[in-house]
Design brief:
Distance between the termini: 10 Å
Structural class: alpha+beta
Helix content: 40-55%
Largest sheet: 5 strands, antiparallel
Number of helices: 8
Shape: elongated
Number of strands: 5
Length: 184
């Protein structure tokens, strides 16, 4: 299960792809808002290249364990929404307030772990069967979870005329999209 946890971190890093839009003067706020909106819209669409190419590569570990990654993705992004709110610009630094509403991965992962621990090991003829059942539990937990709204502040920086997410942005995404880390 440790390998699966590391895959989750990789997924987060892929999601934290920097946006790059040119902005200057009054266009800076628009460049930040449009860049963030474009990135978050990719997360919202399970058919986007973000999920179908980059994230599936990161989720390969789940597929290797017999977990249907399409079902996992669909359960996770179901009901995902966001709103980019106030953007504050101070020279070459900025912050963007973003409200995410999503199903959170870690609580579902933790609940699936608790469920699989209650299973009798004799019910599984192989390790693959065990992981497949865990995947079914994980997807069920995501599907049964009520979406949670989390407000975060995304740091952004400007280099020349290009804005991008600053270091630490992925920590903000983690809080919103993954939820509190499991207490396994």
């Amino acid at each position: 299960m440790r390998k699966i946890s590391l895959v989750v971190v990789s997924v987060l890093m892929v999601f934290a792809l920097a946006f790059s839009l040119v902005g200057c003067g009054n266009a800076d706020e628009r460049a930040i808002r449009n860049g963030l909106t474009d990135e978050f819209n990719k997360f919202k669409d399970p058919k986007s290249s973000l999920w179908q190419v980059e994230m599936k590569r990161e989720l390969k570990e789940f597929a290797d364990y017999g977990i249907n990654t399409d079902d996992l993705i669909n359960a996770w992004v179901k009901d995902f929404s966001f709103k980019v709110g106030t953007i504050k610009i101070n020279g070459n630094s900025a912050t963007a307030e973003v409200s995410f509403t999503s199903r959170q991965f870690y609580p579902a992962f933790e609940a699936a772990m608790k469920r699989i621990e209650k299973e009798d090991p004799a019910n599984f003829s192989s390790e693959a069967q065990f992981y497949k059942k865990f995947g079914e539990f994980l997807i069920e937990e995501l599907n049964n979870q009520k979406p949670v709204t989390t407000n975060v502040v995304i740091p952004c920086t400007k280099s020349g005329t290009t804005w991008s997410e600053a270091a630490g942005a992925e920590n903000e995404y983690a809080r919103a999209l993954f939820g509190p880390e499991p207490k396994l």
